[in-house]
Amino acid sequence: MSIDAVAVARPRSSTRTWRLHLHRPSPVVLCFVVSLLVYEAAACYVSIHGNTASLAGDGVSRVETANAILFSRDPHLAAIGFVWGPIPILALLPLAALKPIWPALVTSAFAGNLVSAVFMAGAVAVMLRLLTDLGLSRWLRWALTAAFALNPMIVLYAANSMSEAYFLFFLLLVARELHLWLRTRQTGRLVATGFYLGLAYLTRYESGAAAIAVTGIVGLATFIASTGGFRRRIRPALLDSIIVAAPFLVAFAGWAIASWLITGVPFQQFSSAYGNAAQIQANGLQTPSTLAQTVTLAEQGIQWMLAFEPFLPIILVACLLVVVWRRDWTALGAPAVLGAVLAFMVYVHMTVKVVPSLRYYIAVIPLVVLLVGIVLSSRSDTAPGVPVSQAGGHPSAPPSSRLASIGGARGDARLGWGRVATVTVALLAMAATIPAGLMTITNSADNPDDAVAVQALVALGPLTQQQQQASLRFVVDRQVSEYMDSMRLGRGTVLIDNFIGFVVVLSSSNLDQYVTTPDLDFQQVLADPAANGVQYVLIPPNTGLGTLDAINRAYPDAYATGKGIGTLVKTFQDHSDLGHNWRLYRVTSSS
Predict the structure, then answer these.
(1) Helices (H), 108-264
(2) Burial of 213 by CB count in 10 Å (0-12 exposed, 13-18 middle, 19+ buried)?
(3) Helices (H), 399-464
(4) CATH class for domain 475-587?
(5) Residue 585: CB partners within 8 Å, gap ≥ 6?
(6) CA 78 distance to own-chain centroid
(7) What is the pLDDT of residues 302-342, one digit of tens each?
(8) Alpha carbon of 506 to those of 43, 411, 498: distances in Å?
(9) CB of 230 within 8 A of CB of 237?
(10) Are 166 and 126 in contact (CB under 8 A)?
């Protein structure tokens, strides 16, 4: 909200009066601010009342990485790691830098909650703009935006610091810019589409599916719109495809080259000991050996999408019928961005290329909102170069092209009861997704990883034993951290792999004592802890993901017997459902 101060001189006095003119904020700004306030409140609730780590281990881990970049024993930017995209970590650095002023931003991982709320509020604002571009009336676009913003899955991932908020923000930006390019054919929109695709890739790698889909859509659209023979049409199609794909390719190649120069491996997400393949193996998952097993896994992925959006098949068919009736194929561009990501996730799910998780299907929520928006939008035959959001009020637009929908223009009364019924059914379907979302994220069958933790977060009465165990996740890690801090150890005297031990390191007030995985001398210290001044080693159980711990890989018997390390000092009993019973060993010179 801007404030203009205007001085007005009185004719008979030298005194000046200052008048304040308050300008009403734009709908998009208002949408962002309101969403941000709601999500930041939810973030505070999750962080203070709940346990962020129990809901978002990956998000807390990224806060620890940002902390390591700035304040660790060996601070350096390469500590960002190359297994996952860098943007969710880079976005945390400004808040992590405030740790000396407000330590809880890092030690409680609150910075992650705050930033994910900002990005999800941004995604909601982009959704409102996209629905405006579709030509929906004011109250319809606000209603659909609210259905998206208030979906429990969206609220949860706005507040819990995970990367889904970042990913949806960039995906929706890609979808909107592609939609506007298909309507206007402005080169700037095409460049913006490619730019956001590059940022999406640096956030989550599955955006590669969106890049392939967008490049194909752009090439095909340009080819069809061009005139002349095949050669004259294929040239502009190729040029436009190159324009939209170039930023993505630069991001892809740049990130791979940076990884190769620093680590010697261009694609850490595939070859790293902490990557997808390693985690799948550590979790005991296997690639399906029969067609029946593959089909079962595919059905599970589709079932998860339907759990979020039970009316997805009906809405999809309705959208396709509307598009065919209007002969407006460009309307499918924006949904195709999200649909490509979901199709890719079903593929990697049924082939077990990733550890199965409900959160990978979050894109189905904005997809359904867009499909409903297309069904409820009015046909707009805009002239080239005129954005569809401006067509209704454009002076030169013919009357037949001016946007009108129920609740909007004066022509609503002429739309009839059929239109009223369509809008009513669509809005009821969208309203139903809110309780459906809550049931999904609290149902252990649909959300096996986090359902019990979410139940504990929203429970109004006493917690069950399972809920208590879930709410205690990573609590023992903080106890380990407090114990180590109480020993007042010197620099580089404790060896730990922060793949499992990120909460231990994150919570510490004495980071200098830890030698952690990102440190440039970690491998040297791991090879001979005693010779490099290490006095203590913290080891997680050598089971599950603990088998990926660098210390367990280097000393397979160390957790059980201390072989190769030293003598047992203390075992920290974990009362949560994770079973991270940390063991502290004192290094002996003879180990």
Answers:
(1) 110-133, 138-149, 152-159, 164-184, 187-201, 207-225, 230-263
(2) buried
(3) 416-441, 451-458
(4) alpha beta
(5) 536, 537, 538, 539, 558, 562, 565, 566, 567, 568, 569
(6) 22
(7) 999 999 999 999 999 999 999 999 998 899 999 999 999 99
(8) 19, 60, 9
(9) no
(10) no
Q: What is the C-alpha to C-alpha distance for residues 200 and 448, in angstroms, rounded to an integer?
A: 27
Q: Which of the four pLDDT bands, split at 50, 70 and 90, describes residue 256?
A: very high
Question: Per residue in 530-571, pLDDT tens?
Answer: 999 999 999 999 999 999 999 999 999 999 999 999 999 999
Strand runs labelled E in 30-120: none
Which residue type occupies 288? Answer: P
Q: Edge-to-edge, what's the strand order for the sheet holding 494-495?
A: 514-515, 494-495, 536-539, 583-587, 566-571
Structural domain boundaries in the chain:
279-381+412-456+466-471, 475-587
pTM of the model: 0.89
Dihedral of CA atoms 520, 524, 530, 534 in degrees, nearest 10, equals: 10
Of 275, 273, 283, 276, the closest CA to residue 545 belongs to 283
Contact between residue 94 and residue 44 where contact means Cβ atoms under 8 Å apart: no
Cα–Cα nearest to 388, from 132, 126, 124, 125: 132
Token digits for 511? 């980071």
